UniProtKB/TrEMBL annotation:
Residues 1-22 have a biased composition (Polar residues). InterPro entries: CRAL-TRIO_dom, CRAL-TRIO_dom_sf, SEC14/CRAL-TRIO_domain. Residues 1-37 are annotated as: Disordered. This is CRAL-TRIO domain-containing protein. Gene3D superfamilies: CRAL-TRIO lipid binding domain. GO terms for cellular component: cytoplasm. It holds the Pfam family CRAL_TRIO. Residues 81-247 form the CRAL-TRIO domain.
Amino acid sequence: MGMISSVTGASGSAETVSSSGKADTPPATAPPENMEQIPGMGPYLGFCRNDKAKAWALYSHGQAIRKELGLDTILHEPYPHWDVLKEHYQKAIHGRSKNGEIVLVECIGRMDLASLKKAGITRKEIVRYYCLFFEFILQHIGDQESKVLMIYDLEGLGLFSVLNGDFLGTVRMLSDCLGALYPRVITKYVLVRPPALFQSLWGLVSGVLPAGARNDCVLCKSAQDLEALLARENIPAEYGGSSDRLLGDAEEMRRLKAHLQSKQAGQ
């Protein structure tokens, strides 16, 4: 998969993950003296606790991944895989939190990799789809300084999926690309609709999620729990709120769909 496997470990250090799953530290390159002046470098320095060598390595890998995935042009060209990805890997932008973060919902428990594979969707395209949402958020919903509150919807998560190496490998790759491409964008991780075996499953799943989701997440079992973070009228009905839009039908998602349709039509 090329540079897509060059990502950051949970500690923030840059690593290269080989096809065998073994992580190797890539050759170090000296950071430029003026690296603080490079646009977009601030989040990398913050993520790596001002370790310039680590920040430069992470930034360089992120730029290589951006190039391989074509992220600089992903919002300016047709995106033919939208329908099949939306059906089998639901994600949704849904309003803002009480603190103003843009809310992004990740239905991780219902990710159907078997159906995606049958439809010819590669892991690389899954990563592009994942990044598509962040690119749209940062370019069209907010700006490059915007923050995101990530909700992980765990409904449907079961022992079979957790023990599936393809599932864990895909989630790990998405999490690692998040650190390499969008460091410090997510301010909080929220877990909703936990399955009955949550305590047993979480120990396995959390190991492949971003460090923030492992160490500083909030478990919300009810709409009342979510109301500490979201106004009730901004909580989707699926989670017990009174939002007038179902998950996937909020104004932000309508804008994203309209944008993609315009590109598909060649506009």
